[in-house]
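Re-run with default settings, no changes from the original entry. Doing this only to confirm the output is reproducible before filing.
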Amino acid sequence: MKKLFILILAGMMAAPSFAQFGASRSRYNHDNTESYYGVRMGLTIASMSSDMAELDTDSRTGWTFGGVYGLQLANSTPVWLEAGLSYAEKGGESKVNSPTIEKITYRMSYLELPVVVKYGFDIIDDLYIDPFIGGYMALGIGGKTKTYTRNVDDRTSESTYNYCNRFDAGLRVGCGVEYQMLYAELGFNFGITNIGKSDFDAVRNRNLFINVGVNF
């Protein structure tokens, strides 16, 4: 992950050298539809929400990174369909009021497929505001649940998927800002799939994400 972070950071630092290309590229074209590729990296602030308030968790911070492809839907309007594939860390943390247990942390790693529709508002030259709405599907590829007891020798770690299903899906909303090739976004994923294995006390993922990246 450190190598990937350095690679993406290097690409973002090199982006100004492509400014002439970025400035000459129209955000949308009246004659031909446009498309772009992008890389993204950022943070997730995740928690889990349940039908039972006592099962709700506090938030935990994780990493997210991946790539996207965007296609202009009509050559006369700045409406874009964007799909991507990313790695995203989710989960939560529960403080336990117990004489023996301090807290329980839930860490889940997903391969996530987001699909959104964007509309590009031209603010000034080369600066665009891009609100978006859509959804996502995700597949759990790793995860640990750790129970922190006051006795260090009794602390345990096991797979989160002993308690949770691997499949997740939900809604995705947010807004991006684009200047030439540089891009940043803030958004929220609302999980609508019950990731818990109990049919009575549904558990759903929630996470805020903050990404930066480059569009080509």
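Residues 100 and 150 are 5 Å apart (CA to CA). The longest strand covers residues 127-149.
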